[in-house]
Amino acid sequence: MRLASLALTLVIIAAPHVAVAQDSVKADEQIVLRQIQTDRRAVYAQNLQLTDAESEAFWPIYDQYEAEMKKVTDARLQLLDQYAAKYDTLTDADASQMLATRLKLDKQAFALRQKYATKFEKALPSVKALRYVQLQDRIDNILAGNMYSLIPLAR
């Protein structure tokens, strides 16, 4: 499955943040994120085996979801940049602000997942909607595990 390539891609994107807390690599991040989205689409297409009618219903909803989730993803990357920039000088006030932002972004991501899971279930047979959510969880968990393993804990 292409999940391993997704994980490797995230490792490549996260490494500059951890290794050197310097300039942001926004352009590279966006390129890698587009590749991750392309790979995700391939994983979903391969594993959902949608009929033509299901595809017509699924992909527009999926594209809407990804567009909304991109805002959360961009904010998470910005937070990661901020953390990397302040890693050596992180204060309690910085950490408190970052924690609040992190929790806010987690809530936003979860709310979007709930909203769109309902839309997917209306557009697809429930078994396929569940399979989509399971695939999404697996991909997200692999990516998060790889990313967070590279980020040093706060001192």
Biggest sheet features: none
Q: Please bin the fraction of helical residues.
A: over 70%
* Tertiary shape: elongated
Question: In what range is the share of β-strand residues?
Answer: under 5%
Provide an overview of this structure.
The chain contains five helices and no strands. The protein has one domain. The chain is mainly alpha-helical. Helix content is 85%, strand content 0%. The relative contact order is 0.16. Helix 1 packs antiparallel against helix 2.
Topology:
Layout (H helix, E strand, L loop, with lengths): L2 H17 L6 H23 L3 H35 L5 H32 L2 H25 L5
Helix pairs in contact: 1-2, 1-5, 2-5, 3-4, 4-5
Summarize the structure.
With 155 residues, the protein is mainly α.
Question: Which tags fit this structure?
Answer:
155 residues, 5 helices, mainly alpha
